[in-house]
């Protein structure tokens, strides 16, 4: 059985023209997820963006959602649901970039957007949203080094084939070295975003070697890391959304000192809002620290800790507000020999 399904939702909207309320014909669109949106993680953030747009704005949109996780499911979608006539298609994740670029070239009347990719296309019906993952990683690195009481700090990623994963690690290393120039950095990719057991085993190995803080970019596989951190009373930095607030067990909540935030929900909502208001534009846009596209989680659980990191964080944030980022030399990460 192929891992794909679609579900239809409709939102009735109105346009106000010259003081009169006129019903607008809804735009027919497809939002494509790369994983189950009901589960905590990257795709649940995207789902939140869809829901937020439906709740907050009177959108004239008729949305169908698709989940296609495997290459086979994406190929099935290409031959099936993607071949239908759509006013717009939104893909969630870099995995959809190549597929939807092919579709954009064939269907010039359809507006295509991919969220979380730097893959651009010089075409009037293409829009891509990139996140400055290096900035998100940099902040996580500054926090990890500020919290660490030793000299060993870790990173566990999902799959290094994705540019965003490499960018997160590069920024993370740079942030660590800005606070602790002599730090030993342990890094490992488990090869996917679902194997929590494998992620947990690697976390245990790192913690046993003296690592006391691990930043993960492993999506759902991170549950294994969090469980080990809670058991060993070590620390984790979450990714994408505020993972501490998603935990039910106090020990796990307390092990997550913050999370690197990637506002996928904001990007999806902004895209749908622009479509509904007929203000969608082709081209590329970046979500970064300056426009609230990336950042770190602040909550009741970590506010006291944040106060202890404030000096280092204030310096980091000041550098990120500089438009050119000339004060941050990310190339230092290329010269670091990582441990496994």
Query: By CATH's scheme, which homologous superfamily of the largest domain applies?
Result: Response regulator
> CATH fold name of the largest domain, please?
Rossmann fold
Mean pLDDT: 90
Cα gyration radius (Å): 21 Å
The coarse silhouette is globular
CATH architectural designation of the largest domain: 3-Layer(aba) Sandwich
Q: What separation lies between the terminal Cα atoms? A: 37 Å
- Please describe the biggest sheet, giving its number of strands, its sense, and whether it closes into a barrel: 7 strands, mixed
Order of strands, widest sheet: 1-5-4-6-7-8-14
What's the total number of strands? Answer: 15
Question: What structural class do helix, strand and pairing data support?
Answer: alpha/beta
Strand content: 25-35%
What are the segments in which pLDDT stays under 50 over at least 5 consecutive residues? 1-22
Q: How many domains would you count in the coordinates? A: 2
N-to-C SSE series? EEEEHEHEHEEHEHEHEHEHHEHEEH
Count of DSSP helices? 11
* CATH class division of the largest domain: Alpha Beta
Q: What percentage of residues falls in helices of 4 or more residues? A: 25-40%
Question: Topology, please?
Answer:
Blueprint: E1 4-11, E2 14-17, E3 20-23, E4 27-33, H1 42-56, E5 61-68, H2 71-79, E6 88-92, H3 97-106, E7 111-115, E8 126-131, H4 133-147, E9 152-157, H5 163-179, E10 184-189, H6 196-208, E11 213-217, H7 222-232, E12 235-240, H8 243-246, H9 250-255, E13 256-262, H10 264-276, E14 283-287, E15 294-296, H11 303-321
Parallel strand pairs: 4-5, 4-6, 6-7, 7-8, 8-14, 9-10, 9-11, 11-12, 12-13
Antiparallel strand pairs: 1-5, 2-3, 13-15
Helix pairs in contact: 1-10, 4-5, 4-11, 6-7
């Amino acid at each position: 059985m192929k891992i794909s399904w679609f579900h239809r939702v409709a939102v009735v909207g109105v346009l106000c023209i010259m003081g009169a309320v006129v019903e607008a014909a809804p735009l027919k669109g497809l939002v494509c997820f790369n994983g189950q949106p009901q589960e905590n993680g990257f795709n649940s953030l995207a789902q939140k963006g869809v829901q937020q747009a439906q709740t907050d704005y009177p959108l004239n949109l008729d949305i169908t959602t698709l989940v296609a996780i495997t290459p086979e499911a994406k190929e099935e979608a290409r031959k099936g649901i993607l071949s239908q006539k759509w006013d717009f298609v939104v893909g969630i994740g870099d995995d959809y970039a190549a597929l939807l670029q092919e579709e954009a070239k064939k269907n010039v009347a359809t507006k295509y957007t991919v969220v979380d990719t730097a893959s651009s296309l010089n075409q009037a019906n293409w829009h891509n949203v990139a996140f400055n993952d290096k900035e998100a990683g940099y902040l996580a690195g500054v926090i990890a080094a500020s919290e660490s009481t030793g000299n060993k700090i870790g990173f566990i990623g999902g799959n290094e084939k994705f540019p965003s994963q490499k960018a997160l690690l590069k920024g993370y290393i740079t942030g660590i070295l800005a606070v602790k120039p002599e730090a030993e950095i342990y890094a490992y990719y488990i090869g996917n975003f679902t194997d929590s057991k494998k992620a947990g085993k690697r976390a245990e190995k790192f913690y046993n070697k003296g690592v006391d803080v691990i930043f993960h970019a492993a999506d759902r596989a991170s549950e294994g890391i969090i469980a080990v951190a809670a058991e060993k009373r070590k620390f984790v930095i979450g990714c994408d959304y505020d993972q501490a607030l998603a935990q039910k067990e106090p020990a796990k909540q307390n092990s997550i000192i913050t999370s690197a935030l990637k506002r996928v929900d904001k990007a999806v909502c902004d895209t749908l809002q622009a479509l509904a208001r007929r203000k969608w534009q082709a081209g590329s846009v970046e979500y970064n620290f300056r426009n609230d596209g990336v950042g770190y989680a602040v909550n009741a659980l970590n506010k006291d800790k944040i106060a202890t990191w404030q000096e280092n964080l204030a310096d980091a944030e000041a550098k990120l507000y500089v438009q050119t980022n000339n004060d941050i030399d990310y190339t230092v990460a290329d010269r670091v020999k990582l441990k496994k």
